[in-house]
Amino acid sequence: MKRSGTTDGYGIPLGRILAGANRHDSPLLAPTLDLLEELGPLPDETTVRLDAGYDSVTTRAVLNERGLHGRIAHKGIEAPIQATQRWPVERAHAWQNAFHRLARCYERRINVIDAFFDLADTIITIRSLIRRAWTTHRWDTHPHHRP
After folding, report:
1. What would the pLDDT profile of 7-37 be if each residue is shown by its tens digit?
2. Distance CA 47, CA 131 (A)
């Protein structure tokens, strides 16, 4: 199964488009970016970071239509973008793969697959909020974190 997803800067999943594993990434870009409209207005300096699979004139046109700035790795050139700036998306995919039902999904009904992904994304979001709260909110009687 092919997943094209959006995340925030912390790797929290914001939306996804699912397709068959034999699909190329680039046709999924426009529907994935359409998911951002449901979130409301985006900040002025929103950057979309994409890997070399999206390095095409069509991709740049799709980004320009939506007024988004794109950082796209170039084909055949090892890109620091993937190593340094695309990791929130890769991390989100790894978190989703930790739910083994999603890593190897044999389900055929799209509504069931979406339900599994929604549940996984909810758990990922709650875990991230708890993790962030442990480091940002301190008080004198703060309970100690137990492993």
Report:
1. 887 788 888 888 877 888 788 888 888 888 8
2. 26
